Amino acid sequence: MSHSSTNLQFIVQPGGSLHGNVRVPGDKSISHRSIMLGSLAEGTTHVSGFLQGEDCLCTLKAFRSMGVDIDGPTDDGKVTIQGVGLHGLKTPVGDLDMGNSGTSMRLMSGLMSGQAFDVRMTGDASLSKRPMKRVTVPLASMGAAIDATETGTPPLLVHGGRKLQGIHYDMPVASAQVKSSVLLAGLYAEGTTSVTEPAPTRDHTERMLRGFGYAVKTDGNHISLQGGGKLIATDIDVPADISSAAFFMVGASIAQGSDLLLEHVGINPTRTGIIDILKLMGANLDILNEREVGGEPVADIRVRSTQLKGIQIPEALVPLAIDEFPALFVAAAFAEGQTVLTGAEELRVKESDRIQVMADGLLACGVDAQPTPDGIIINPGNFTGGTVDSHGDHRIAMSFAMAALCAKAPITINDCANVNTSFPGFVELAARVGVRVVTASA
Ligand code: S3P
User: Fold this and answer.
1) What separation in Å is there between the alpha carbon of 352 and the centre of ligand 1?
2) What pLDDT is stored for residue 5 in this prediction?
3) Of 73, 82, 219, 374, which one has the fewest beta carbons inside 10 Å?
């Protein structure tokens, strides 16, 4: 069951409510991109609020091993990057280990396609099962040469020294990782590289490229750039990750008597599906002190508990809340009335099959949860508690930790070490605001 030799467990006692002020760690998507673009820029980039999770550290180490001088992260999340320019990377010694991080592997596939040298990228057990054809196919049509396993999974060998040609790519899946991979390869391609997306996805790559002085055109669902430009170093203030804040939004919504303030949360409109869906369920969320920090909108979010109601989740909101469904399923399990999700087959190819793994976990806790090919049907009530296997998926583990706030019996969550990929310090922070969680090794 466990992917690592020891099984880190979360043991969560039922009850409690959430109070106080919390700043969750930095945004994972923005932290990855800050290292990538900072490394390829001309000049020194200063990053603050960097997420010191294992995923982003994989990206950081990859660029270090390609000769980029990167200082930090310091304890308070400062990173200083001496950019080497788009053509200044050196051949790494050995493979680039992307750990659990799909974002690193997919975005780097695009960037590495434009280099003069070969790179081999590997990942952990979960990443080694995830689909990469979604990036290797469009990149190959630009002239890249990437070897994968027969089924299109990692490890990936990206051959260097290829001449890339700009393409237009009509994306079959709404994926920011695919969009970003193609656009980043486009920096090295001749002419125009463009994509159309079937639904809006997170636009951090486009925003940050513009922050580094690189022209990117967005016209509705059509995004394009010209190859052959350059990136100019800039400073990046990474907001708190709305995907990490989501667990606390759900926890404070379901746990009676809660009143929690989440500070400095990134509220980029391509990420706020969690807020919209919780509001449709009747949640009491106040978006306060809206401001813009380094090209990204930020706010404080006050969450007070309320009785949620089950809903049919609008499909248009799925890509805008793609990482938040494990937490939302927990919210649905304590709502009044049925919740139905459709149009979310992408959840089956995340760090785990989040439809199946969440359904199994909810069932183990006594809840009627029926997986469907592209979603789930949750009939709330009877959340007793029990033992849940997170399958090494950080977001599954953190979601069930919040569920204990309203469960009737303790919840034991297995295989939780990967919470460190996106949310170092989760247990301490959750305990500080009122979750009755401790860790154990089994
Ligand atoms: C991410 C995009 C999303 C998301 C992932 C991070 C990104 O993946 O699930 O956690 O940083 O671009 P898809 O774009 O494949 O949906």
Assistant:
1) 14
2) 66
3) 219
Does 233 share its domain with 243?
no
Q: What confidence tens digit (pLDDT) does each residue in 81-90 have?
A: 999 999 999 9
Count of all residues that appear for the chain in the document: 442
Residue 1 inside a domain? The answer is no
User: Is 175 annotated in some ligand binding site?
Assistant: yes
Examine residue 3 and state whether it is found in any structural domain, yes or no: no
Residue 170 and residue 307 in one domain: no
For ligand 1, pick from 32, 175, 179 the residue to mutate: most ligand atoms within 8 Å of CB.
175
Which domain range does residue 92 map to? 28-237
User: What is the atom index within ligand 1 of the atom nearest the CA of 179?
Assistant: 14
- Is the domain of 12 the same as that of 90? no
The whole-number pLDDT of residue 192 equals 98
E strands along 366-436, which residues? 368-372, 375-379, 386-389, 411-414
Q: Kindly tell me if the per-residue pLDDT of 187 is higher than 60.
A: yes
Residue 163 annotated in ligand binding = no
What are residue 327's phi and psi, to 5 degrees?
Answer: -65, -40
Tell me if 354 is assigned to a ligand binding site. yes
384 exposure class (CB count in 10 Å sphere: 0-12, 13-18, 19+): middle
- For residue 256, report the distance from its CA to the centre of ligand 1, in Å: 32
Residue pLDDT, tens place only, 111-162: 999 999 999 999 999 999 999 999 999 999 999 999 999 999 999 999 999 9
Q: How confident is the model at residue 361 (pLDDT cuts 50, 70, 90)?
A: very high
Per DSSP, helices labelled H in 142-203 are: 176-186
- 176 CB near ligand 1 (under 6 Å): yes
Of 104, 194, 211, nearest to 158 by C-alpha is 104
Residue pair 83/233 in contact by the 8 Å Cβ criterion: yes
Q: 202 CB under 6 A from ligand 1?
A: yes
Q: How confident is the model at residue 1 (pLDDT cuts 50, 70, 90)?
A: very low
The protein residue whose alpha carbon is closest to atom 5 in ligand 1 is: 103
Distance CA 239, CA 49 (A): 7
pLDDT at 339 over 50: yes
Q: Report CA(177)–ligand 1 centroid distance (Å).
A: 5
In this prediction, residue 294 carries a pLDDT of 83
Confidence (pTM): 0.98
Q: What's the chain's average pLDDT?
A: 97
* 34 pocket-lining for ligand 1 (C-beta < 6 Å): no
Nearest CA to ligand 1 atom 13: 175
